Amino acid sequence: MKIISWNVNGIRAVLRKDALAPLIKTEDPDILCLQETKAQPGEAAVDLPEYKDYWYSAVKKGYSGTALFTKEEPQAIVNGLPDKLIARFELPDDGYGDPHAEGRVLTAEYSKFFLVTVYTPNAKEDLSRLALRAKHWDPAFLAYCLQLEKKKPVVFCGDLNVAHTELDLANPKANKGKKGFTDEERAGFQAFLDSGFVDTLRLFRQGNGLYTWWSNFGGARERNVGWRIDYFLVSGSLRGTVTAADIHPSVLGSDHCPVSLSLDL
Predict the structure, then answer these.
(1) Domain map of the chain by residue range?
(2) Candidates 110, 138, 159, 230; catalytic one
(3) Alpha carbon 205 to its chain's center
(4) Catalytic: 119?
(5) Who is most buried in 7, 76, 170, 191, counting CB within 10 A?
(6) 122 in the Ramachandran plot: left (φ > 0), alpha (ψ -120 to 50) or beta?
(7) What's the CA gap between 101 and 119, in Å, rounded?
(8) pLDDT one-digit tens code per residue, 59-76
(9) CA-to-CA distance for 167 and 206, rounded, in angstroms?
């Protein structure tokens, strides 16, 4: 089974650039997970007849949102985090809006695993959303994945808006303490590993230069001055089923590139 995850930074823009169809033709994924779709279901004419599609769009139009395209019909689809976890972790309207009205978490249940596609809130340039990340969102999302794991293994993917280690961005010293590379955000990612989840790319590829997002300025992508902030993580029990994990920087159309995972299930 092959799964691809891509922050498209606007599905309509990707479609206008004719960037999605070549990816599907080349990679032929069983499941495609998208983040930052910035569209309601009827606003984007995605022509993928082999796939069933599921959308979790933000209430605010043209903002955030996730979607999933799958050849196999899931047993269930769940939008958002459970109300009990929202209450437990007191996820607030932090001035930017209700993070649970932003279409950030979409879960599909399959026979052997749960698949979660997530678009994690950005901490913002002035770190004004860092408290939401560190104190509320990251622990709530981890608790959700652990809750799912009690029933069956979990695969989760998406834009986590954090570079985990200094190997995951081109200029770690210059960016230390800035959004996406604060101690708090990095600790939030580490908590997943400490809970038994596996960063699948690192099973196959080590070192730096493996980036998934680049600034639109200064020729950053051409020079590969980027960040790895898009991931596939799996439950530890699935580690032995992971046959491949990679990034696809040659795929254009967004400021992010797709990432992929193959499982032998």
Answers:
(1) 2-263
(2) 159
(3) 19
(4) yes
(5) 7
(6) beta
(7) 12
(8) 998 999 999 999 999 999
(9) 9
Q: How confident is the model over 94-138, as pLDDT tens digits?
A: 777 788 889 999 999 999 999 999 999 999 999 999 999 999 999
Alpha helix segments (H runs only) across the chain? 11-16, 20-27, 83-88, 130-131, 138-149, 172-175, 183-194
CA distance 230 to 182: 16
* Strand-pair category, 66-70 with 52-56: antiparallel
Q: Give just the sign of the alpha carbon dihedral 100, 61, 131, 66.
A: positive
Catalytic residue among 51, 119, 144, 211: 119
Sheet arrangement for strand 242-247: 52-56, 66-70, 31-35, 2-7, 259-263, 242-247
Helix (H, G, I), strand (E, B) or coil at 156: strand
Read off the pTM.
0.96
Average pLDDT over the chain reads 96
Which residue has 């809006």 as its token pair?
A: 97
Comparing C-alpha atoms, which of 263, 262, 258 is closest to residue 5?
A: 258
Q: Which CATH topology does 2-263 take?
A: Deoxyribonuclease I; Chain A (3.60.10)
Whole-number Cα distances in Å, 16 to 19, 123, 254: 8, 29, 11
